[in-house]
């Protein structure tokens, strides 16, 4: 298969739910949280390389040096491995839109672009590429196409995708009889709607009804995304197009500095996915149940991923369900008579959280900021 | 009141239940665990000074320098502030017995000796001295006299004293009518027996029946203790007497090196208190209920003592009943969605224990020793 996907990786986010491992200056995507020897960003690049005609990482100036150090091929002048530095954070739509507009200028409106988070984990890259291929097939037909994650539990941590009928086969292989059903399959379906993170009862209903998790991955033709944007957010589209036209010219920096601050800060989900889905323009390629996807949204997810391997240097006296992460402190951790905890040690901070309360770790960061302890966040 | 008590402080014990604050090389008595600015040993000396004709600290060679640094008056040649270094640990009876035998040599058999732990905490030194005075009065009459702690709860962490009838008043002030009862009073009673740490149901019965906690403090005439020892453990008594007779002579070191290793290792409770009580020779002076005594036997006790003041540099998101102790790591500790925990940070180790499981912290030390991590204990 000829790599024909222009991969866009918006790399941002504070990752405050993984404090104190992640910090403002060292967000989640820069960390090797899986112990694989590759950071989440490096693993994202590795995973997508087989399909990538080009790759663009969009990040803030604060992370330029760290990204370039982790991925030296993005540090040079190669236009197929490019680092786009946002002058300021404007949420995901301007970041993805700028990279898309640049692709349209360079490769034409029919070029496929795909946007993927920099800080997710996928256990089975082979199954992921199958889903990407299915998404590309639907994208070529004009759909804004997302990759839907087949739920493994009734999680309340993710938004869900209500998928409708399968798209008529056209250029995608027909589904063999008997293979549709609970397992993900590489055939795209129309998206009825995107729904927000549900409560527990609603989550159970969604899973029973075959809804998929929304992992925020989108594949489409560059011209399709820009067309929707021109219709729904014309000022944003015009600004992005103006910057993109200057990109490979001497006026890039001036145009970026002048126009970027005027762009609306908005997420691609609200700007494009939700309104376009309401009019039948969004498809979803369900990934295989065995994909092994997680966004590592909190320490409970990280502990789940790490499993018994997270025992680190810990000494346990009756401590079931506990996970310990050493963020460079080198301390031996002893756990006595506790359960379902995560303990994280770093040189300047120690976190002890109940796994079921792990989403509240972000409140610690809020408190530290309020208390003027910004050096710790 | 003329200070006429020869105070003996056996300062030993591994204190493994307070790991990682306490270590082999830095046992509990050398630490300022109350935040008072004085270590437990220093506070013990402070508390007893008003009644002390002399004071002797008996400790191991490993702690000589630390004790001398904390208590410079014990580092010199003063015979009334003396540091006795045990060649090896032989439990409490040889340590207390040697200091007692030395007092008998120097001051005669009628001199009062009192043995007190080096690592207990007492909130009200004034009430403690009242109990010491009552104990001295009974001791002068020939009793081996202990100070009984009036229980504040049905603890399973302490041995109990079954006290019998009040001794007939003789040299002690009579009890004013109506003042006996649940509160401790400065009048000694006969001891029926010492009982071991009970289970919870037995502890409740003991408290209901007016039993007292055994804090391991003993006051008696030097000749009374040595007399019991000569009868019950003649070889031990003979060895101690031989060393004591050489103590203020040039042969001290030779005699100590030759005789000490032959002495039976035994606790004073088993050697003297229990058998003598069985024959009516032990009295108890109950301390006032408000004494505020604790042996700080584990982190639950330390958390209880520290109260809300133990919050340290912690950031709490819904963490009731938690205490944090910084043993020199300087780390900020964040607690999220947990309860009834103690967290201790030191430069090389972090402990997280459920308060009700705090007695099991010693198992961590066992594990570390087994794992060859002796540098951490």
CATH topology category name of the largest domain in chain A? Spore Coat Polysaccharide Biosynthesis Protein SpsA, Chain A
The number of distinct structural domains of chain A comes to 2
Spell the H/E element sequence of chain A: EHEHEHEEHEEEHEHHHHEEHEEEEEH
Structural class of chain A: alpha/beta
**What's the level 1 CATH class of the largest domain in chain A?**
Alpha Beta
Radius of gyration of chain A: 21 Å
Fraction of helical residues of chain A? 25-40%
The CATH superfamily of the largest domain in chain A appears as Spore Coat Polysaccharide Biosynthesis Protein SpsA, Chain A
Across the major sheet of chain A, the strand order is 6-9-7-8-10
Distance between the termini of chain A: 44 Å
Biggest sheet of chain A, open or closed, and with what strands and sense? 5 strands, mixed, barrel
Uncertain spans of chain A: 172-185
Protein name (chains A, B): Mannose-1-phosphate guanylyltransferase
Domain Nucleotidyl transferase (chains A, B): 8-305
Keywords (chains A, B): Nucleotidyltransferase, Transferase
Domain MannoseP isomerase/GMP-like beta-helix (chains A, B): 329-368
What layout of secondary structure does this protein have?
2 copies of one chain form a homodimer.
Chain A: E1 5-11, H1 40-48, E2 52-60, H2 64-70, E3 81-86, H3 92-107, E4 112-115, E5 121-122, H4 125-140, E6 144-149, E7 160-166, E8 189-195, H5 200-208, E9 212-221, H6 222-232, H7 234-247, H8 252-259, H9 268-277, E10 282-286, E11 293-294, H10 299-306, E12 315-317, E13 323-326, E14 332-336, E15 341-345, E16 349-354, H11 361-370
Parallel strand pairs in A: 1-2, 1-4, 2-3, 6-10, 12-14, 13-15
Antiparallel strand pairs in A: 4-9, 5-11, 6-9, 7-8, 7-9, 8-10, 15-16
Helix pairs in contact in A: 3-6, 3-7, 3-9, 6-7, 7-8
């Amino acid at each position: 298969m000829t790599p024909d996907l222009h991969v866009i990786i918006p790399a941002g986010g504070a990752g405050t739910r993984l404090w104190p491992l992640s910090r403002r200056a060292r967000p989640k995507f820069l960390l090797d949280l899986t112990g694989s020897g590759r950071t989440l960003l490096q693993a994202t690049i590795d995973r997508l390389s087989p399909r990538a005609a080009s790759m663009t990482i969009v990040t803030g100036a604060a992370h330029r040096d760290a990204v370039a150090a982790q991925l030296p091929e993005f540090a040079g002048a190669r236009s197929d491995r490019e680092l786009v530095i946002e002058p300021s954070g404007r949420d995901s739509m301007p970041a993805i839109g700028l990279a898309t507009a640049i692709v349209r200028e360079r490769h034409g409106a029919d070029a496929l672009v795909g946007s993927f988070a920099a800080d997710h984990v996928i256990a089975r890259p082979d199954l992921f590429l199958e889903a990407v291929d299915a998404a590309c097939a639907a994208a070529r037909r004009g759909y804004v196409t997302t990759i839907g994650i087949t739920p493994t539990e009734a999680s309340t941590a993710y938004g869900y995708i209500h998928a409708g009928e399968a798209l008529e086969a056209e250029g995608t292989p027909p589904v063999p009889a008997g293979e549709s059903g609970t397992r993900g399959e590489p055939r795209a379906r129309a998206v009825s709607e995107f729904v927000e993170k549900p409560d527990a009862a609603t989550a159970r209903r969604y899973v029973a009804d075959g809804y998929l998790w929304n992992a925020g991955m989108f594949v489409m033709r560059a011209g399709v995304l820009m067309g929707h944007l021109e219709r729904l957010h014309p000022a944003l589209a015009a600004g992005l197009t103006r910057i993109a036209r200057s990109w490979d010219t001497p006026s890039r920096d001036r145009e970026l500095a002048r126009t970027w601050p005027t762009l609306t800060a908005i997420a691609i989900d609200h700007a494009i996915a939700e309104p376009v889905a309401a009019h039948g323009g969004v498809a979803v390629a369900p990934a295989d149940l065995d994909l092994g996807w997680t966004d590592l949204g909190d320490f409970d997810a990280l502990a789940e991923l790490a499993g018994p391997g997270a025992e680190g240097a810990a000494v346990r006296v009756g401590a079931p369900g506990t996970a310990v992460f050493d963020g460079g402190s080198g301390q031996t951790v002893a756990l006595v008579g506790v359960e379902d905890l995560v303990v994280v040690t770093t040189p300047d901070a120690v976190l002890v959280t109940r796994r079921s309360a792990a989403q509240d770790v972000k409140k610690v960061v809020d408190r530290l900021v309020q208390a003027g302890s910004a050096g710790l966040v």
